[in-house]
């Protein structure tokens, strides 16, 4: 009742009112099918796309973090390997240096021994030559003093005595 009196007061006939209501509902139904349905579909698709993009970005970020950690690990391994290579090279160089020094020291020792041997031989040769020269001079002097020629055994005995005498002095 309230609705009829209000309608009558506004002088809106019931038929027009029903037509407006039906037209409004029909327009709403058409808008829902034509505009609202596709619009919500497009908005849902966009929301899904944005959600997929966000998920993809999160996955890409996680992958990037994993790659960064992996690269840091590989860099640390590479640094460790480089340090090992440098240490090995230093050890090898030190070993080679020690080997060269040892070889040079051995060679110097050998040269020194050879020089000592040569010096001893030269000394012995010099002493032998000196003995021979002294013996020859002694024989010459003794021959002149005695005015006679000594036999070989006499000469040897005289030389040995003379040399013994020189060695004791």
TrEMBL record:
Gene Ontology molecular-function annotations: hydrolase activity; proton-transporting ATP synthase activity, rotational mechanism; proton-transporting ATPase activity, rotational mechanism
Entry's localization field: Cell membrane; Endomembrane system
Keywords: ATP synthesis, Cell membrane, CF(0), Hydrogen ion transport, Hydrolase, Ion transport, Membrane, Transmembrane, Transmembrane helix, Transport
CC annotations in GO: endomembrane system; plasma membrane; proton-transporting ATP synthase complex
Superkingdom of the organism of origin: Bacteria
Bilayer disposition of the protein: Single-pass membrane protein
The protein's assembly and partners: F-type ATPases have 2 components, F(1) - the catalytic core - and F(0) - the membrane proton channel. F(1) has five subunits: alpha(3), beta(3), gamma(1), delta(1), epsilon(1). F(0) has three main subunits: a(1), b(2) and c(10-14). The alpha and beta chains form an alternating ring which encloses part of the gamma chain. F(1) is attached to F(0) by a central stalk formed by the gamma and epsilon chains, while a peripheral stalk is formed by the delta and b chains.
PANTHER family: ATP SYNTHASE SUBUNIT B (PTHR33445:SF1), ATP SYNTHASE SUBUNIT B', CHLOROPLASTIC (PTHR33445)
Family: Belongs to the ATPase B chain family.
Name of this protein: ATP synthase subunit b
Organism: Leuconostoc gasicomitatum
